[in-house]
Each structure stands twice: as structure tokens, then as C-alpha cells.
Amino acid sequence: MPNFKALIFDVDGTLADTERDAHRPAFNAAFAEAGLDWHWDVDRYGQLLKVTGGKERIATYIAEEGVQIDPSTDAADFIAGLHRAKTRHYVDLLEGGSIPLRPGVLRLLREARDAGIRLAIATTTTLENVSVLLDNAGEPGLRDWFEVIAAGDVVPLKKPAPDIFLLALAELGLDAADCVAVEDSDNGVRSALGAGLRALLVTVNAYTQEQDLREAPLVVDQLGEPDRPARALSGDLGGRSIVDLEVLDRMHRSVFAAI
Ligand code: XBP
Ligand code: MG
Question: How far is the CA of 146 from the centre of ligand 1 (A)?
Fold first, then answer.
């Protein structure tokens, strides 16, 4: 039986590769619908990912490009309207079922659930977006596997601030030392560590593989499946070829034993 009680997952980039092929096209569709000539290609979007949160990302783009907004419109309302349209496009896209969970995600969730490990989410994106991802992941009822879904604008500050992980911990009623967090990015690592979640697994993706993730005790390319071994980029899989509860338990014990 693992020594930790809950797993807290990030969503975008961690549960699924949503950024490049779902969030990005949804932003572009919203811009086109609003008659804007903005287009975020894969590289530009990668730069903009330094800012978490869709509304915050649009505001950053406006500032960086020096875009002039009609002075008769309230900038926050304008951004919120674009973001609502973006969410609509995102939901449409995911309802089409085109974004699968990353390798090993369902396997690890199932193993944790069967072992009585509690499951939670701490994400910057909206509850609507989390729900549509989980509801279209090919596992009926998957959303209900998560006891806590902390998402979006419910906290004052988004990642890299620790607020959303602190909220997930409060809703679980657990100390950080009783949990393992799973993230994909440097902003997520800072957020989790800021909340005291030192037992932290990072599964990188194309947008985050070059980031400085040294503070995480274990970094892998993906969680792995029996026919698709996981590779440790830093830290130790202890000779195993997939990230399972045994790997996470060893990582958790070594992090908290070191205190
Ligand atoms: C995810 C994000 C999100 C999505 C867009 O960060 O930054 O902003 O890109 O979501 P993390 P919204 O994985 O660290 O939580 O447009 O719904 O904000
Ligand atoms: Mg992420």
C-alpha cells in the first residue's frame, strides 16, 4: 500500500496534449470569428505558454504586439468575450473526440483508483474544458473518478502561483506531504512546489521538454504503457518501464524521508 493518499493532476499537457491541437486552434477560431487577423502558429503559441490562463495569454499577446483595441470597448470585457468564444470552440473540438489521453494516463488512474488512492485535479483551465476532456476520453464516468476538480478562475492567482494546488489540498482535506502531484511544465512545477507538493512527477511534452524542470524529483517523457516504456529524463524509475504506484511511492518516500 502506498504511503501517500492522493494524486493531484494537472490537465493541459499532462492528462492530454491539449495545447497545440486544441487550445491553440480554438483561440485562432475565436479570433477569426471576431474578425481579427491574429493567428497563433505553433511557435508563437509556445512562446505565449509562458503565461498560464487563456484570458491572461490574450492580454499578453495584445501587450506584446501593441494591438490597439477600440477605445470605446472595455479591454477586460473584450478579452472575456474572446475567451468565451474560444471555450465554445474548444468544447466543440473535444466533443469531436480528437484529443486522446496521453499514454499511461488511464492505466495509472485506474491503478490508483483500485488501490483507494484519492484523485484530484488542479488546473488553470476552466471546469467546462476539464469536463469535456474527461467526458470524451473513452472511459465512461471518468470525471467522477476525481473527487476534487480545482479549475480556472476560482482562485486569485493562476500557476505558477500555488493557489490552485492549495485549493485542491484544502478540498481534499490533506497535507501536501500526503500527496503526489503530476505536472508537465515549469509553471506547474513552481505552483506545486509553492504549495509544498515536493513529491512531484513531471511528464514532459514537445512544448515543455526544454524547460528547466530540475526541481522536480522525477521527470519522464511519458507515463508509459507495457508496449511503450517510459524514459526517465531525471530521477529514477528503479528499473521499471512504466510509471506506476510503486514508482510514485518510492519517489514520495525518498522526497519526504529526506526532510
Ligand atoms: C494550462 C493553461 C491554460 C490553457 C488554456 O496551464 O495555461 O490556460 O492553455 O485554458 P496548466 P483557458 O496546464 O499549467 O494548468 O483558455 O481555459 O484558460
Ligand atoms: Mg500543464
Answer: 19
